Each structure stands twice: as C-alpha cells, then as structure tokens.
Amino acid sequence: MQRCAWCSDDPLYIDYHDHEWGVPTRDPQVLFEFLLLEAFQAGLSWITVLKKRERYREVLFGFDPQRLARMTDAEIDERLQDPGIIRNRRKLEAARNNARAWLQLEDPVGFIWSFVGGRPLVNRYASREQVPAVTAEAETMSRALKKAGFSFVGPTICYAYMQACGLVMDHTLDCHRHAQLVDASATSGPSMQVH
Length: 195
Known about the structure:
The chain is mainly α. Helix content is 54%, strand content 3%. A three-stranded parallel beta sheet has the order 2-1-3. It is globular and about 50 Å long. The relative contact order is 0.17.
C-alpha cells in the first residue's frame, strides 16, 4: 500500500497517517489537542511527539483547556521531571497560555476553520518536494493566533497544524489516502476545495 513519503514503517506513524492526518475535524477537543502537540513538536520530529502523546494526555488533563488554563507553576515544575514528555518549560507554559487563549475565543472551531473558508483545501501534489512548509493561509492563521494571545504558533507550525487537522489535505497523489479522502468528500457533498 502506497503512503506519503514522510511516513516511516513505525506502526504508530502508519496509524496516524492512515487514520488522522489530513482528515477534516471540527471536534474542538481534537483541534485544541493538535494545536498543543504541534507546539511541542517545534524543533523536533513529529514521531517524537506521537510517541509521547499518550503521556501528554495523562499529564495535561486529557488536553482539557479549562483545567489546563488553571495549571499552576508548581504543576509545571512537576511535569518538568517527567521523562515521558518533552521537558521544556517554555512549551509547557505555552500550553497553559494557549489554553487560556483558546477559552477566550467565542467560537474556536469557526475561528480555526475560517482560514480556509470553512472547507478543506485539497492539494494535488505529485511528490513530497512539492508540498510547501508554509502558505499564505498559514501565515494569516499565525498572525491571527498571535494577536489572540497564542504562542508557539509560527507559520510553519500553523501549516503543519492545518495538515494534521484536515484544513488542508496534502496526501500526495500516489498515496492511497488521497483518493480515499477525496472520495469520502464526494459522497458527503461538495465540501472540499480542490486546487
């Protein structure tokens, strides 16, 4: 079965690629979780974050923004001792800060999806080399998130976030998921914007 070139043979990566990456989600909990995970990934490989994802769910209150917004400095200090996560104070403080910013959004799902006009952008790239690291939409999202008080939301992080949550679908044309996701969209109505 053909997959995107970035997907290794790690079973965790394969499962993520085949079932999550590029699948449009409007679940606020999933959107929030991925926003934090992408921030933790800054400067590291995505597989590193995926391997620590379950532990993050345990120590970050199931990515509950209400509880995370109340995380104390002492709780951050405690998590900095946990080898099961990426121990970076700035990123943990950003998780708390971003939870607070998320809770200030009147409609977080509508806000996140507004950067693609409410419908996934479906790209038709033949190879990994054609897939951009940043787009105009990601730059706009980054500026808006920063203005709303978020941190660790540069344009590259925002584009990876858009890919992960299916705001953009960047499975390459040779990947089996490209056709599956386009077909799924076709049966549910004209909900995707094909580029």
